[in-house]
Specification:
The complex is a heterodimer. Chain A is mainly alpha-helical. Chain A has a domain of 201 residues. Helix content of chain A is 76%, strand content 3%. Chain A has eleven helices and two strands, in the order ααααββααααααα. In chain A, strands 1-2 form a two-stranded antiparallel ribbon. Chain A starts with a helix and ends in a 10-residue tail after the last helix. Chain B is α/β, with parallel strands linked by helices. Chain B has one domain: P-loop containing nucleotide triphosphate hydrolases (Rossmann fold, 3-Layer(aba) Sandwich). In chain B, α3 runs parallel beside α6. Classes of the chains: A mainly alpha, B alpha/beta.
Chain lengths: 299, 233
């Protein structure tokens, strides 16, 4: 062995380890971002807590897996957000609209109940067994980056998350509807006094949030086994992301997602015995130091 | 133009307005005076639909506003400048103005972005600043400019001079006097007696949620007993 290799060897191993885990962390972050962004803006705009948001993610995964089985992967990925948004419309008109003034306690209880309703509905429609979703052939290979092989599909999730962040950032910061949403989050009463129908805006944001949850479920489906409980198990991470990031803001959703993704991923490989408590310790620290989260919409 | 008939309103269980009646005329400035807690701001919030009307009736230009939502009321032509100014902190000065401009500035609009900046040149220098980077006076100018961009038929202002330096109070006074000269209908809630009576045509004094005195600015200026009794001036 040459001296050069001796020194480069462990270093190269180190670098590839960091890159690999970094990409894994990014991929988890982006999935959480798709889920948390809808939930946090809905909460910021209307102070409405929808605990069943995770169930919409599970629903997206099921719709995508089923549609993929019949019509191929791409049909599933397109159909899932639309189907979940359509379900969101029903949910809004049937339940949420009636609960707008009933206070957070009732909202939490009803949407918590909704989790179990949707859990059983999923079991009735799809059964209790885990469903496997196919991965499209185009995306099932591996790509070599920085001398490292990484699954294309996971890279696509990272890129998709980035694109959606960019798109939402553009809409929120550059368009009139984005200004209306920010105004509504700042002060919904005053926004209404300027002739803005804040309730209609809320409905729109709610539907987009549902569609993004459905999309998250659809893109996660080929990576996980699709089970009825997946909605429940993603709920806690999503809530942690929102609390760490701060309520109501896009910046908070992306920051919280990245923090969760990196702490969770690196925690699991660097300190496996601490991994499950690490994120909760961080959550507790944020709540002690900055109870409103890192980037809340209302400073 | 605006008629309140025996309206009842308040916050939650606490009733503040106990059958309050008043009217504000077209092309006139109506000042609502009264001590703290008399129900002045509550009256304006009830007109805007921000507080639920629990009794009585509100009519605007002859048709009822009763139980309309704030955005409907805004579209009917009432613009509101709240006591707290309520500038949106996440929006720049320009964006704050555009929220009203995009919705209410037709081709024949009296107020456009250029016109309000002409009225308040200070805002023109601050267009890209965040809403929270403004001084109290600039926030008040922005709140008034934003309301004017709604091209309202009636402008209602809640304590526009509160917490402002005398020089800014003077500026706001001159601008509102100019609006009055153009014939803009206004309802003005004020603690500053001199400011209010120099702008207003009609004065209503509120105490304990009811109108206790009605007359002109000149009359309330002359009526030291009413001033002492209802306003503690």
């Amino acid at each position: 062995m040459t001296p050069a290799l001796l020194t480069a060897g462990p270093l190269a191993l180190d670098a590839s380890f960091w890159v690999l885990q970094g990409l894994n962390a990014l991929q988890l972050s982006m999935l959480l971002f798709l889920l948390s962004v809808g939930l946090t803006v809905i909460f910021g705009l209307m102070h409405f807590v929808n605990l069943a948001h995770g169930s919409l993610y599970a629903m997206g995964a099921y719709v995508a897996a089923s549609a993929a089985g019949l019509m191929g992967y791409w049909a599933g990925v397109l159909l899932a957000p639309l189907a979940v948004a359509a379900f969101g419309v029903l949910l809004y008109w049937g339940l949420i609209r009636r609960m707008r003034r009933s206070g957070p306690m009732a909202q939490v209880l009803v949407t918590f109940g909704l989790i179990f309703v949707m859990l059983d509905l999923t079991r009735i429609v799809w059964g209790d067994l885990a469903l496997a979703a196919p991965m499209p052939e185009l995306l099932s290979g591996r790509l070599t980056i920085l001398g490292l092989e990484y699954p294309i599909y996971r890279l696509v999730i990272i890129v998709l998350g980035g694109l959606i962040y960019g798109g939402l950032y553009w809409v929120l910061s550059r368009t009139q509807i984005g200004a209306m949403i920010r105004a509504g989050v700042d002060n919904d009463a005053m926004a209404s006094c300027l002739g803005i129908n804040v309730e209609q805006l809320f409905f729109l944001v709610f539907c987009v949030g549902c569609a993004l949850a459905g999309l998250a479920g659809a893109v996660a489906a080929p990576l996980l086994s699709v089970t009825p409980e997946m909605g429940l198990s993603i709920l806690i991470p999503t809530l942690i992301v929102i609390v760490i990031g701060g309520l109501g803001s896009l910046k908070g959703a992306i920051a919280g997602s990245l923090i969760f993704g990196f702490v969770q991923t690196f925690g699991a490989v660097l300190a496996p015995q601490l991994a499950s408590v690490l994120i909760y310790a961080l959550l507790a620290a944020v709540l002690v130091i900055k109870p409103v989260g890192l980037f809340p919409a209302r400073g | 133009m605006l008629e309140l008939k025996a309206i009842k309103s308040g916050y939650g269980e606490t009733q503040v307005l106990h059958g309050l009646s008043l009217d504000a005329g077209r092309g006139r400035v109506t000042a609502i005076l009264g001590r703290n807690g008399a129900g002045k701001s509550t009256t304006l919030k009830t007109v805007m639909g921000l507080l639920p009307l629990k009794g009585g009736e509100i009519r605007f230009e002859g048709s009822p506003l009763t139980n309309a939502r704030p955005f409907n009321i805004a579209k009917r032509g009432i613009a509101y400048v709240p006591e707290t100014r309520d500038i949106f902190p996440s929006l720049s000065v320009r964006e704050n103005l555009e929220l009203a401009e995009k919705r209410f500035c037709g081709p024949a609009a009296r107020w456009t972005m250029e016109k309000v900046i002409e009225l308040f040149p200070r805002l023109g220098e601050r267009m890209e600043n965040g809403g929270t980077q403004l001084s109290g006076g600039e926030q008040q100018m922005l709140a008034i400019a934003r309301a004017l961009l709604m091209n309202p038929r009636l402008l209602i202002l809640d304590e526009p001079t509160e917490g402002l330096a005398p020089i800014i109070v003077k500026l706001i006074h001159d601008k509102l006097a100019a609006l009055r000269a153009e014939g803009l209908s206004m309802v003005l809630v004020e603690q500053n007696f001199g400011f209010a009576t120099s702008l207003a045509d009609d004065v209503k004094v509120i105490s304990k949620g009811q109108v206790v005195w009605t007359g002109s600015s000149a009359e309330i200026r002359a009526d030291t007993e009413a001033q002492h009794r209802w306003l503690g001036v």
